Amino acid sequence: MSRFLKKLYVVLIVIFMYAPIAVMIVQSFNQSKSRGHWTGFTLEWYISLFSDESIMAALRNTLTIALLSSLIATAISLLACLAIRQMTKNTRTVVMGITNIPMLNADIVTGISMMLLFLSMGIKFGYGSILIAHITFNIPYVILNIMPRLNSLDNSCFEAARDLGASPVYAFFHVVLPDLMPGVMSGMLMAFTMSIDDFIITHFTKGAGVDTLSTKIYTEVRKGIKPEMYALSTLIFGAILILLLLLNFTKNGSRKKNKTGTNAPSILEIAP
Prior knowledge:
By secondary structure, the chain is an all-alpha fold. It contains eleven helices and no strands. The protein has two domains: 1-46, no CATH class; 53-269, MetI-like (MetI-like fold, Orthogonal Bundle). Helices cover 78% and strands 0% of the residues. The longest helix has 34 residues, at 227-260.
Protein backbone atom coordinates (compact mmCIF):
# COMPACT_ATOMS: atom_id res chain seq x y z
CA MET A 1 0.00 0.00 0.00
CA SER A 2 2.85 2.37 0.86
CA ARG A 3 4.53 1.69 -2.50
CA PHE A 4 1.26 2.34 -4.32
CA LEU A 5 0.83 5.69 -2.56
CA LYS A 6 4.38 6.72 -3.49
CA LYS A 7 3.75 5.89 -7.15
CA LEU A 8 0.43 7.71 -7.08
CA TYR A 9 2.12 10.74 -5.54
CA VAL A 10 4.73 10.81 -8.32
CA VAL A 11 2.05 10.39 -11.00
CA LEU A 12 0.01 13.28 -9.57
CA ILE A 13 3.08 15.54 -9.53
CA VAL A 14 3.87 14.68 -13.16
CA ILE A 15 0.26 15.35 -14.19
CA PHE A 16 0.25 18.65 -12.32
CA MET A 17 3.47 19.74 -14.05
CA TYR A 18 2.73 18.61 -17.60
CA ALA A 19 -1.06 18.82 -17.95
CA PRO A 20 -0.91 22.55 -18.91
CA ILE A 21 1.72 21.79 -21.56
CA ALA A 22 -0.39 18.91 -22.90
CA VAL A 23 -3.41 21.23 -23.17
CA MET A 24 -1.31 23.80 -25.04
CA ILE A 25 -0.06 21.17 -27.50
CA VAL A 26 -3.60 19.93 -28.16
CA GLN A 27 -4.89 23.48 -28.64
CA SER A 28 -2.18 24.19 -31.20
CA PHE A 29 -3.96 21.69 -33.47
CA ASN A 30 -7.47 22.99 -32.72
CA GLN A 31 -9.25 24.32 -35.81
CA SER A 32 -11.29 26.81 -33.81
CA LYS A 33 -9.89 30.18 -32.80
CA SER A 34 -11.94 29.89 -29.64
CA ARG A 35 -9.90 27.94 -27.14
CA GLY A 36 -12.99 26.86 -25.25
CA HIS A 37 -14.01 23.93 -27.45
CA TRP A 38 -12.55 21.52 -29.99
CA THR A 39 -13.84 21.78 -33.57
CA GLY A 40 -11.35 19.63 -35.48
CA PHE A 41 -7.71 18.91 -36.25
CA THR A 42 -5.70 21.39 -38.33
CA LEU A 43 -2.16 22.43 -39.16
CA GLU A 44 -3.29 25.92 -40.15
CA TRP A 45 -1.66 27.64 -37.20
CA TYR A 46 1.71 26.04 -37.93
CA ILE A 47 1.49 27.07 -41.60
CA SER A 48 0.51 30.59 -40.55
CA LEU A 49 3.37 30.64 -38.05
CA PHE A 50 6.03 29.83 -40.65
CA SER A 51 4.60 32.39 -43.06
CA ASP A 52 5.00 35.20 -40.51
CA GLU A 53 8.29 36.92 -41.35
CA SER A 54 8.60 38.70 -37.98
CA ILE A 55 8.36 35.41 -36.10
CA MET A 56 10.83 33.76 -38.46
CA ALA A 57 13.27 36.64 -37.88
CA ALA A 58 12.88 36.16 -34.12
CA LEU A 59 13.48 32.42 -34.59
CA ARG A 60 16.69 33.07 -36.55
CA ASN A 61 17.90 35.50 -33.88
CA THR A 62 17.11 33.01 -31.12
CA LEU A 63 18.91 30.09 -32.75
CA THR A 64 22.00 32.03 -33.84
CA ILE A 65 22.36 33.79 -30.48
CA ALA A 66 21.89 30.50 -28.60
CA LEU A 67 24.42 28.69 -30.79
CA LEU A 68 27.06 31.42 -30.72
CA SER A 69 26.67 32.18 -27.01
CA SER A 70 26.85 28.50 -26.05
CA LEU A 71 29.97 27.89 -28.17
CA ILE A 72 31.78 31.03 -26.96
CA ALA A 73 30.74 30.49 -23.34
CA THR A 74 31.95 26.87 -23.51
CA ALA A 75 35.35 27.90 -24.87
CA ILE A 76 35.78 30.61 -22.21
CA SER A 77 34.57 28.31 -19.44
CA LEU A 78 36.94 25.52 -20.45
CA LEU A 79 39.92 27.88 -20.26
CA ALA A 80 38.59 29.26 -16.96
CA CYS A 81 38.30 25.76 -15.48
CA LEU A 82 41.88 24.94 -16.45
CA ALA A 83 43.04 28.17 -14.78
CA ILE A 84 40.96 27.55 -11.64
CA ARG A 85 42.38 24.02 -11.37
CA GLN A 86 45.89 25.46 -11.05
CA MET A 87 44.95 27.81 -8.20
CA THR A 88 45.52 27.13 -4.53
CA LYS A 89 42.68 25.62 -2.56
CA ASN A 90 41.62 28.86 -0.82
CA THR A 91 41.83 30.93 -4.00
CA ARG A 92 39.89 28.26 -5.90
CA THR A 93 37.13 28.32 -3.27
CA VAL A 94 36.81 32.11 -3.50
CA VAL A 95 36.77 32.10 -7.31
CA MET A 96 34.18 29.32 -7.49
CA GLY A 97 32.03 31.19 -4.97
CA ILE A 98 32.18 34.32 -7.12
CA THR A 99 31.40 32.24 -10.21
CA ASN A 100 28.27 30.79 -8.58
CA ILE A 101 26.83 34.20 -7.67
CA PRO A 102 25.21 34.85 -11.10
CA MET A 103 23.32 31.55 -10.84
CA LEU A 104 21.91 32.51 -7.45
CA ASN A 105 21.23 36.10 -8.49
CA ALA A 106 17.78 37.07 -9.75
CA ASP A 107 17.58 37.35 -13.55
CA ILE A 108 16.03 40.80 -13.33
CA VAL A 109 19.05 42.05 -11.34
CA THR A 110 21.41 40.60 -13.94
CA GLY A 111 19.35 42.11 -16.77
CA ILE A 112 19.28 45.60 -15.26
CA SER A 113 22.99 45.39 -14.40
CA MET A 114 23.88 44.43 -17.98
CA MET A 115 21.69 47.23 -19.32
CA LEU A 116 23.38 49.83 -17.10
CA LEU A 117 26.82 48.48 -18.05
CA PHE A 118 26.05 48.78 -21.77
CA LEU A 119 24.71 52.29 -21.28
CA SER A 120 27.80 53.41 -19.33
CA MET A 121 30.12 51.91 -21.97
CA GLY A 122 28.18 53.37 -24.87
CA ILE A 123 27.42 49.96 -26.37
CA LYS A 124 24.56 50.06 -28.86
CA PHE A 125 21.62 47.86 -27.94
CA GLY A 126 20.81 45.19 -30.48
CA TYR A 127 21.93 41.76 -31.59
CA GLY A 128 25.46 42.23 -30.22
CA SER A 129 24.33 43.35 -26.76
CA ILE A 130 22.02 40.33 -26.45
CA LEU A 131 24.86 38.01 -27.49
CA ILE A 132 27.27 39.48 -24.93
CA ALA A 133 24.64 39.23 -22.18
CA HIS A 134 23.86 35.59 -23.04
CA ILE A 135 27.56 34.66 -23.06
CA THR A 136 27.95 36.29 -19.65
CA PHE A 137 25.11 34.48 -17.90
CA ASN A 138 25.90 31.15 -19.62
CA ILE A 139 29.51 30.95 -18.40
CA PRO A 140 28.74 29.95 -14.76
CA TYR A 141 26.47 27.11 -15.89
CA VAL A 142 29.11 25.70 -18.23
CA ILE A 143 31.78 25.93 -15.52
CA LEU A 144 29.43 24.08 -13.17
CA ASN A 145 29.32 21.18 -15.67
CA ILE A 146 33.01 21.08 -16.60
CA MET A 147 34.66 21.65 -13.21
CA PRO A 148 33.55 18.40 -11.47
CA ARG A 149 34.70 16.42 -14.49
CA LEU A 150 38.06 18.18 -14.46
CA ASN A 151 38.52 17.62 -10.73
CA SER A 152 37.96 13.88 -11.19
CA LEU A 153 40.71 13.52 -13.81
CA ASP A 154 44.02 11.87 -13.00
CA ASN A 155 47.04 13.95 -14.04
CA SER A 156 49.18 10.83 -14.49
CA CYS A 157 47.95 10.27 -18.08
CA PHE A 158 48.81 13.83 -19.05
CA GLU A 159 52.23 13.54 -17.40
CA ALA A 160 52.84 10.20 -19.13
CA ALA A 161 52.03 11.76 -22.48
CA ARG A 162 54.49 14.57 -21.76
CA ASP A 163 57.16 12.02 -20.80
CA LEU A 164 56.60 10.28 -24.14
CA GLY A 165 57.39 13.49 -25.99
CA ALA A 166 53.95 15.00 -26.55
CA SER A 167 53.73 18.79 -26.41
CA PRO A 168 51.42 20.35 -23.78
CA VAL A 169 48.90 21.34 -26.47
CA TYR A 170 48.97 17.92 -28.12
CA ALA A 171 48.64 16.14 -24.77
CA PHE A 172 45.72 18.36 -23.79
CA PHE A 173 43.73 17.73 -26.98
CA HIS A 174 44.47 13.98 -27.06
CA VAL A 175 44.41 13.11 -23.35
CA VAL A 176 42.59 15.70 -21.24
CA LEU A 177 39.93 16.97 -23.65
CA PRO A 178 38.47 13.54 -24.59
CA ASP A 179 37.84 12.86 -20.90
CA LEU A 180 36.32 16.31 -20.46
CA MET A 181 34.01 16.04 -23.48
CA PRO A 182 30.95 14.72 -21.57
CA GLY A 183 31.11 17.73 -19.24
CA VAL A 184 31.86 20.09 -22.11
CA MET A 185 28.92 18.80 -24.18
CA SER A 186 26.48 18.85 -21.27
CA GLY A 187 27.57 22.38 -20.38
CA MET A 188 27.19 23.55 -23.99
CA LEU A 189 23.73 21.99 -24.30
CA MET A 190 22.68 23.56 -20.99
CA ALA A 191 23.94 26.96 -22.18
CA PHE A 192 22.05 26.52 -25.46
CA THR A 193 18.87 25.67 -23.55
CA MET A 194 19.27 28.56 -21.12
CA SER A 195 19.81 30.99 -23.99
CA ILE A 196 16.68 29.86 -25.85
CA ASP A 197 14.63 30.01 -22.66
CA ASP A 198 15.80 33.42 -21.44
CA PHE A 199 13.41 36.37 -21.50
CA ILE A 200 14.24 38.83 -18.71
CA ILE A 201 17.90 39.46 -19.55
CA THR A 202 17.10 39.63 -23.26
CA HIS A 203 14.28 42.09 -22.60
CA PHE A 204 16.63 44.53 -20.85
CA THR A 205 19.50 44.24 -23.34
CA LYS A 206 17.76 44.13 -26.72
CA GLY A 207 17.36 47.10 -29.01
CA ALA A 208 14.39 48.31 -31.01
CA GLY A 209 13.52 46.02 -33.89
CA VAL A 210 15.49 43.06 -32.53
CA ASP A 211 13.52 40.21 -30.97
CA THR A 212 14.04 36.66 -29.86
CA LEU A 213 11.21 34.15 -29.55
CA SER A 214 10.68 34.89 -25.86
CA THR A 215 10.35 38.66 -26.35
CA LYS A 216 8.29 38.14 -29.51
CA ILE A 217 5.82 35.91 -27.66
CA TYR A 218 5.59 38.49 -24.87
CA THR A 219 4.82 41.24 -27.39
CA GLU A 220 2.20 39.14 -29.21
CA VAL A 221 0.49 38.00 -26.02
CA ARG A 222 0.06 41.62 -24.92
CA LYS A 223 -1.97 42.18 -28.10
CA GLY A 224 -4.09 39.08 -27.47
CA ILE A 225 -3.33 35.39 -27.52
CA LYS A 226 -3.22 34.09 -31.09
CA PRO A 227 -3.39 30.39 -32.03
CA GLU A 228 0.02 30.78 -33.68
CA MET A 229 1.52 31.34 -30.23
CA TYR A 230 0.33 27.90 -29.13
CA ALA A 231 2.05 26.40 -32.17
CA LEU A 232 5.24 28.36 -31.49
CA SER A 233 5.29 27.38 -27.81
CA THR A 234 4.76 23.73 -28.79
CA LEU A 235 7.74 23.85 -31.14
CA ILE A 236 9.90 25.44 -28.44
CA PHE A 237 8.87 22.75 -25.95
CA GLY A 238 9.69 20.04 -28.50
CA ALA A 239 13.11 21.54 -29.20
CA ILE A 240 13.96 21.76 -25.49
CA LEU A 241 12.75 18.18 -24.97
CA ILE A 242 15.01 16.92 -27.76
CA LEU A 243 17.99 18.80 -26.27
CA LEU A 244 17.37 17.27 -22.84
CA LEU A 245 17.14 13.79 -24.35
CA LEU A 246 20.41 14.36 -26.20
CA LEU A 247 21.99 15.59 -22.97
CA ASN A 248 20.88 12.47 -21.09
CA PHE A 249 22.01 10.15 -23.87
CA THR A 250 25.39 11.90 -23.91
CA LYS A 251 25.83 11.41 -20.18
CA ASN A 252 24.68 7.77 -20.29
CA GLY A 253 26.98 7.05 -23.23
CA SER A 254 29.96 8.57 -21.44
CA ARG A 255 29.24 6.50 -18.31
CA LYS A 256 29.12 3.28 -20.35
CA LYS A 257 32.35 4.16 -22.15
CA ASN A 258 34.05 4.96 -18.85
CA LYS A 259 32.99 1.56 -17.47
CA THR A 260 34.24 -0.36 -20.50
CA GLY A 261 37.28 1.88 -21.00
CA THR A 262 36.68 2.13 -24.75
CA ASN A 263 37.09 5.90 -24.80
CA ALA A 264 40.48 5.95 -23.09
CA PRO A 265 43.35 6.32 -25.59
CA SER A 266 46.38 4.14 -25.23
CA ILE A 267 49.44 5.93 -23.88
CA LEU A 268 51.42 4.42 -26.77
CA GLU A 269 49.12 6.24 -29.21
CA ILE A 270 49.49 9.63 -27.57
CA ALA A 271 52.98 10.69 -28.52
CA PRO A 272 53.13 12.44 -31.91
